[in-house]
Amino acid sequence: MWSHEPMRIDTGGGRRMRGAWSNWVGAMVAVLLLPTAAAADERAYSAAEGYQLAQRLCQSCHLVDDKADIAVPAGIPTFRGIANRPGQTAERIRGVLMKPHAPMPDARLTGQEIESILSYLETLRTDRSAPPLVPPPGAPKPKYPQPS
What we know:
It is a single chain. By secondary structure, this protein is an all-alpha fold. The protein has a domain at about 45-125: Cytochrome Bc1 Complex, Chain D, domain 2, CATH 1.10.760. It is about 45% helix and about 0% strand. It is elongated.
């Protein structure tokens, strides 16, 4: 019933242990890469979100899309006009949105919201040879000043 011999565990010549070890290492690598994948998803700016923001925050002065049947003040550019202005850059639009000027109100947009609005404006561009308004995948994320 009881034996005085040391207990032996059959590891299958070490193959099972190596397999378990490699599974564990693979799982740890996956866990370490999760923050990188989350950061990439964070950069997935949404043109649909930008459109919704524009409708909510900008439509009282700007014509946000071609479907809108509203009156806007004379001389205020449409979103399509902003997107297709010669020489228009993302930096210029970011600057206007971060430091509004009269009569434009300060909407206090987050960096994510600004990038989403830029994504929507990108959908309105007709000149595809113009530099993109949103950073391409893999490009560094734009830097924004900290709110005061």
